[in-house]
Structures are given as structure tokens and as C-alpha cells.
């Protein structure tokens, strides 16, 4: 894999830390700003909404920009929003800063995905995607638990400062390693041509499944800290370790997917999807048992990111005529799930069903994904059969 992909993964590490770190900070943010836990969890949904809107919008905006200029602009904007988030005492301002940070993150990731798939062979998109998403999983392993630990030691604001500081070397690395020059070559007739290319039924199916699988992941992950402490009975000191286990699992899962997604995606998606459903159901039933919750954090992290990254890779394979908007819409689809999951989980929790309801919602989303995949695949197969 080209070295520049690992440079981009470094920046995505900082951005992934920001996107996920609230899982360990939600209770402290709620207490400090005087809002409910559901409202604090909604900051994750706000970030995801910004990613949903920003991914295609920023991809179109950056179409005529040189690749390095686009990446630097988005990364610097991302850094500055975290400085604002670290100093504000207002929940609305923090909420707005999360949306702006998400717009910048979305633009960066859309451009990075387009760049990654353009720099590798046509049959290596899965591996290229896994390198970039490896930055996200490393954020789960090190960045998110580190943010939770910083929050416990010096308050949740220190985690925002840490993300801003980590973004600085990423800016330097992009300046030194990403080639400048002209913008990427156009796809099939510009933005309108790329949008037409994104109407393929199989592509739309991959995007829908990605949204549902990621919704299941983020639903439980956002409330994993209170689930562990309030239901499983683990002490606060266990929260960083539990998040690190989930992150380690996600790194293992995305690494495995990078080796399999290009050649044998179907067994991974079917087997991984069924195992995910079983895992979320088991977690919901046994959330009060620490001996079950701890290993499942590792297992569900691995399965979630293996299946999710494979769906992203398959979406990119289905959009060869949309080199820029394909990555943007794949990013948006994942973040539809990232918004849907915490929102649905927050509704269930605020309705009085307790933190155990989060994995139940995750299981329901996975069941919907499997049902959708089965029905849509059958219909597409029948549509492709010759008549008569």
C-alpha cells in the first residue's frame, strides 16, 4: 500500500477519536452542562448528522480543489472546532461545534477515500479502505480510552484539547506527504454524471446495509460506559479498558476484512452479520453479568468493523463511475447509522427502559439489516434471470 495512505490514516485517527470519544464522556458532559444523558449522547448524533450532510456536500465542494488543498482545509477547520469545543460552557455552542467538526471530517474522509482508491489497483479497494479505517479503529484502541482517562483525570474538556493537539502532526504530515497539483480527474460527466452512477440497486443496497449495521454499532457503543457501570456493576476504572477492548476488536476486524473483502466478501458479510445479531442479543440478555460484557466488547467491536468496512468496500466497487461522490455517499450512509443508533438508544433510555435497552435496539437494527439483505438479494437475483 502507498505510504500516503498511512498519512491519511493518521489524520483519520484524530478524527475517529473525536467521533467516538464521547462514549466515555457522556455522563460528565451531561453533569457539567446541566443536560440529560440522552441530550449529551445526542452530541454523537449531531456529529453524525453533520457527517451525513457534509460527506456528499463537501465532496462536491472540493471537486475542483487540488487534493492537498482540500485535505488541509478540512483538517485545519476540524482542529479549530475542537478548540472552540474545549473552551465553551454552552451546550448549544458545543452542539454547533460538533456539527462543524463533522462537516470538516466528512469532507476529509470523502476526499481521502477517493484518493485511496485512485492510488491502488482496481482489485485492491478493500485493502485500501481497511488502511484508512485502520485509523478509526486505532482511535478506538488508544484515542477513545485515552480520552475517557483524560476525562476522569482532568475533565472532559481535556479530551477535546488532546484531539486538537493530535491534529497538528497530521496537518504537518499531509503537507509533507500528499502531492499537490491539480484536482482529481472528473468522473462520468461531472457531479450530475456521478449522481446518475450512484443509482445502481446493488450500490443502494450496500449503502442501506452499511447504515443499519453502523446504527447497531453506535447505539450500544455510545452508551457502553453507563451500561458497564450501572448495569454490569463495573467500576469507573473499567470504562477505559472496556473501550480499549472494543477498539482492539475493531482493529482486528478491519484488518481481517482488508484481507478478505476483495476476494470473499459474501461469506464474511453473511457469517459476520449473523454473529453480530447473536452477540447483541446475548449482550442485552446478560448485560448484568460483567464476565459476559467484557469479552463481548472485544467480539462485537471486531464483528462490527469487519462487516462495516466490507460494506464500504463493496459500495466503492459498485461506484466506479463516481470516484468522488462514491466515497462521499458511503461516508454519509455510515453516519446515517451513527445518527440513528444513538438517537434510537437515547429514546429507549429516556423512556425509562434503562441502559440494557441499547443492545436490544442494536439487535433490532441488525435483524432489519439481515432481512433487508435477504429480500433485496432475492429480488435482484430474480430481476437478472432471463425471462421465459
The gist of it:
The chain is mainly alpha-helical and 388 residues long. The chain has 15 helices and no strands.
Figure out the total of helices.
Answer: 15
Q: Got a strand count?
A: 0
**Helix share, percent:** over 70%
* Outline: globular
User: Main sheet, how many strands, which sense, barrel?
Assistant: none
* Model regions low in confidence, pLDDT < 50 over at least 5 residues: none
Q: Estimate the strand proportion.
A: under 5%
Q: Summarize the helix and strand pattern as letters.
A: HHHHHHHHHHHHHHH
- Structural class, judged by helices and strands? mainly alpha
Measured distance between first and last alpha carbons: 47 Å
| Mean pLDDT rating | 83
* Radius of gyration, whole Å: 20 Å
Describe this structure in words.
By secondary structure, the protein is mainly alpha-helical. The protein is built from 15 helices and no strands. α1 runs antiparallel to α5, α1 packs across α6 (125-154) and α4 (67-87) packs antiparallel against α7. The longest helix is centred in the middle third of the chain and has 30 residues, at 125-154. The radius of gyration is 20 Å and the shape is globular.
Pick out its properties.
15 helices, 388 residues, mainly alpha
Topology:
Elements lengths: L2 H18 L5 H8 L3 H25 L5 H21 L3 H28 L6 H30 L2 H21 L12 H8 L3 H22 L1 H8 L6 H23 L4 H21 L4 H28 L7 H29 L3 H28 L4
Helix pairs in contact: 1-5, 1-6, 1-7, 2-3, 3-5, 3-14, 4-5, 4-7, 5-6, 5-14, 6-7, 6-11, 6-13, 9-13, 9-14, 9-15, 10-11, 11-13, 12-13, 12-15, 13-14, 14-15
